[in-house]
């Protein structure tokens, strides 16, 4: 997970960490980061979107390797 997060922009990592690891609300994160609630939601959305895309690529790669090794 740490490696996946390291590929994201710093502000997205900060927002993800504060939200999902530290348990802060969007309002609290906005205050901590000195940005608007909308910006925090944007950071979270973009980070989660990127992580989902990375997950899909990893799953596809695993399936390809598995299928090639079984033929």
UniProtKB/TrEMBL annotation:
Protein name as catalogued: RNA polymerase sigma factor 70 region 4 type 2 domain-containing protein
Pfam families listed in its UniProt record = Sigma70_r4_2
Per UniProt, residues of the RNA polymerase sigma factor 70 region 4 type domain are 3-48
Signal peptide range in chain numbering: none
User: Which Gene3D superfamilies does its entry note?
Assistant: Winged helix-like DNA-binding domain superfamily/Winged helix DNA-binding domain
Q: Biological process GO terms, please?
A: DNA-templated transcription initiation
| GO molecular function terms noted in the UniProt entry | DNA binding; sigma factor activity
User: Which InterPro entries does the entry link to?
Assistant: RNA_pol_sigma70_r4_t2 (IPR013249), RNA_pol_sigma_r3/r4-like (IPR013324), WH-like_DNA-bd_sf (IPR036388)
Source taxon at top rank: Bacteria
């Amino acid at each position: 997970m740490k490696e996946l997060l390291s590929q994201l922009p710093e502000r997205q990592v900060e927002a993800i960490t504060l939200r999902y690891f530290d348990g802060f609300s969007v309002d609290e994160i906005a205050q901590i980061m000195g940005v608007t609630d909308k910006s925090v939601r944007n950071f979270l959305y973009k980070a989660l979107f990127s992580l989902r895309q990375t997950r899909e690529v990893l799953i596809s790669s695993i399936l390809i390797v598995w299928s090639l090794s079984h033929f």
